[in-house]
Amino acid sequence: MPQIFDRSSNALARMSLILTGLIVIALGVTLDQLQRSPWVTRQGQRADQPVPFSHKHHVQGLGIQCQYCHTGVERSSYAGIPPTKTCMNCHAQIWTNAQLLEPVRQSWATGESIRWIRVHDLPDYVYFNHSIHVNKGIGCSSCHGRVDLMPIMYQENSLQMEWCLNCHRNPAKNLRPAGEVYNMAWTGPSREKPVWCGTNGDKTGTPTAQTVSCTTVNPEQVGARTASLDMLPPTDQPETHMLDVAAHPNGAAGPTGADNVSYTKFTDQQGLGLFLLKQYHIRDPHELSSCETCHR
């Protein structure tokens, strides 16, 4: 009986299997990179808004605080988009005839909301509470980037589950004193710029993040004036509280000036984060990474 297949058929079969495997691997890698790309995540993309609102102008240029527009940032599950009235508080008096602000004036006259395009939009099946992150020492710039340097708002991070889990597995790298939450330029402590933190214990009815007092001035220096970085209610204008601190063998005077607080010096973010992790009573990484944290 004559041979049906040539001897080279075995080599061709092996090459076909290898080629098929390489194609499958390449396709998998391509799809993986595609779903992480800005084309899918919209990371770095500038939305075409009805009014080209500049955070850089309003935050860095005019010094307007985040809470003035995003009133629910500390008390609600979402930061909130400011109503037209918030814009008109200023623009009823300045730039009243600017063509750029015509949609704002039209919205104010008709009562119809401006149709802003949401930049940071999580899937509907994800439960995200904005207030718990703010009140546990996560700064605005940790998630949103340097908003104060953005002429046009864009999404700094991917907001994918992998990005969230990277923080939940090690939240210490992003924790900061409560009073620095709205400080866009916060970079954490270093050897050149150490941070001293202390606490006088939990207080009933007071968020854990507000029981920690931190300063960039050595509290052991006699006569030094220390800035208490306690968070203020969202309705108040944030300001620095100056407290007289006298030398004490165990540290410095506490935030109230009456309690003895032992301050600890931190020269790196991880050390400060681990301290705040304990003081803020944040759940351990295993609990923070569980499915029910975000999916309910």
Note down, in words, how this protein is organized.
The chain is of the alpha+beta class. It folds into 2 domains: 55-173, no CATH class; 187-282, no CATH class. The chain has 11 helices and 8 strands. The protein has a 3-stranded antiparallel β-sheet, with helices on one face. Strands 5-6-7 form a 3-stranded antiparallel β-sheet, with no helix packed on it. It has a two-stranded antiparallel ribbon with strand order 3-4. Helix 5 crosses helix 6. It is flat, with a radius of gyration of 26 Å. The termini are far apart. Mean pLDDT is 84; it is low at 222-258.
Q: What value does the average pLDDT take?
A: 84
Numbering strands along the chain, what is their spatial order in the largest sheet? 2-1-8
Tell me, briefly, the overall form. Answer: flat
How large is the count of helical segments?
A: 11
Strand content: 5-15%
What's the main sheet like?
A: 3 strands, antiparallel
Radius of gyration: 26 Å
β-strand number: 8
Order of helices and strands: HHHHHHHHHEEEEEEEEHH
What structural class should be given to the helix and strand makeup? alpha+beta
